[in-house]
Amino acid sequence: MTVKQPFETVVASHGAVVLRVCRAVLGPVDADDAWSETFLSAMKAYPELPADANLEAWLVTIAHRKAIDVVRAQARRPIPAGDLPETTQASGAEHDDDLTAALGRLPGRQKQAVAYHYLAGLPYADVAAILGGSADAARRAAADGIAALRRTYPGFAARKAAARKEEVR
């Protein structure tokens, strides 16, 4: 029998992944609110969750739904006269404005597939369950998104080389 971990441990273990997903889908301004809403909803539903559930996929699914809620709310909101400076920074999380801009230019499905697979580390089957559709469609959307990032994001090659060096160590 699997014993459920305390919810505080769940937040500590998966909080950074959920924040990365929220940032990739929504951008840095709305990501913190979506992150908070994700864990508030998760905290309410956690007691009913089976002990052997895939917590990361469950949390990313909740984050996806909260991101959709934010996007819908933005569509109803009036456009502000000026932009506010970005002040949200997660403790210890890296932030790259160029990458955020490049992700923001991707079509919605590609952006979400890249965020859920590459940033959250979910398998394509889980990404497909979140987005709707097949694992092959999720794989294709993520591949198209990465291809677009390679063309438009100036730091992509440098990050890829650094990641390869880390893998060798």
Keywords:
169 residues; single chain; mainly alpha; 8 helices
Task: Give a topology summary.
Elements: H1 7-26, H2 28-45, H3 55-76, H4 97-105, H5 108-119, H6 124-131, H7 135-152, H8 156-168
Helix pairs in contact: 1-2, 1-3, 1-5, 2-3, 3-6, 5-6, 5-7, 6-7
Q: What overall form do the CA principal axes indicate?
A: globular
Strand content: under 5%
Q: How would a textbook summarize the main sheet?
A: none
Q: Over the alpha carbons, how many angstroms does the gyration radius reach?
A: 17 Å
Instruction: Report how far apart the termini are.
Output: 37 Å
With helices defined by DSSP (H or I, 4 residues minimum), what is the helix count?
A: 8
Number of strands: 0
Helix content: over 70%
| Average pLDDT, all residues | 84
Low-confidence segments, ≥5 residues, pLDDT <50? none
Helix vs. strand class: mainly alpha
Order of helices and strands, N to C? HHHHHHHH
